[in-house]
Design goal:
about 240 residues, alpha+beta, nine-stranded mixed β-sheet, four-stranded antiparallel β-sheet, about 25% strand
């Protein structure tokens, strides 16, 4: 890996700023002053230091975000705030992206990473990774709706959903439910309820596979995954 790319990814500044660090003779590779930002280094086998501080290299980041409403699940947008905009610049340097998407007005658990293989595994329809949502529904949700979801409902584009599990928490003029699905079609939860003549008025995702939303995270807050969370999540995607 080029030295400038490594240091920029690890949050030591832009390529231009990293070049200045080398000119200032504060970057060392195995105890020898770095000569050029274009030289290639092995961040695992070699020791790189900046101002005497060892650069702790890592290739991937894994961030749990409590996505707030009004923020879009994208890497960049000219009009709206994205989930990446909420991250510290030291994490943005890794060029992360959201694993799947939550609608703009939906809140809850969103995994952000730059690990493409894990992302593919978690989103692959063949893996059947469950996602659990809490929702408030305009209208009375019944056991008949649960039976329909368990069989699969036809969405507005003709797609038949895979079997889903519906738990009714409260039923009335406005119902409360918990829904577990194993796929992630565009606006899927909302469209599933539209298919049975009802409307979602509030939606929040609580989990994805083994990963549970941390109760201590307020809307817009995030933290990196623990080793245990990451290990369990990778097993779910295997």
């Amino acid at each position: 890996m080029r030295l400038d790319k490594l240091l920029a990814n690890m949050g030591y500044g832009s390529r231009k700023e990293v070049k200045q660090l080398v000119k200032d003779k504060v970057v060392m590779i195995d105890g020898v002053l770095a000569k050029s930002t274009s030289q290639h280094v092995d961040p695992i086998a070699q020791q790189i230091t900046v101002y005497g501080e060892v650069v702790a290299y890592r290739e991937f980041i894994y961030v749990m975000l409590h996505k707030p409403p009004g923020v879009i699940s994208a890497t960049e947008d000219l009009r709206d705030t994205t989930v990446i905009d909420l991250l510290d610049p030291t994490l943005q340097h890794f060029a992360p992206f959201p694993v799947g998407r939550l609608d703009k007005d939906t809140e809850g658990l969103l995994l952000i990473t730059n690990d493409g293989q894990l992302t593919h595994n978690l989103l692959s329809p063949k893996k059947h990774v469950p996602k659990v949502y809490y929702a408030r529904i305009e209208g009375e949700v019944t056991e008949a709706d649960g039976e329909a979801f368990a069989k699969g409902v036809i969405l507005d584009d003709g797609y038949e959903t895979k079997p889903a599990s519906l738990k009714i928490i409260a039923s009335g003029e406005q119902s409360e439910i918990e829904l577990t699905i194993q796929e992630g079609k565009f606006h899927q939860v909302k469209r599933m309820f539209e298919a049975v003549g009802k409307k979602v008025v509030y939606l929040k995702r609580f989990s994805m596979g083994s990963l549970q939303l941390d109760d201590n995270l307020a809307l817009g807050e995030y933290r990196e995954l623990t080793i245990q969370e990451l290990t369990q999540l990778k097993r779910a995607g295997e």
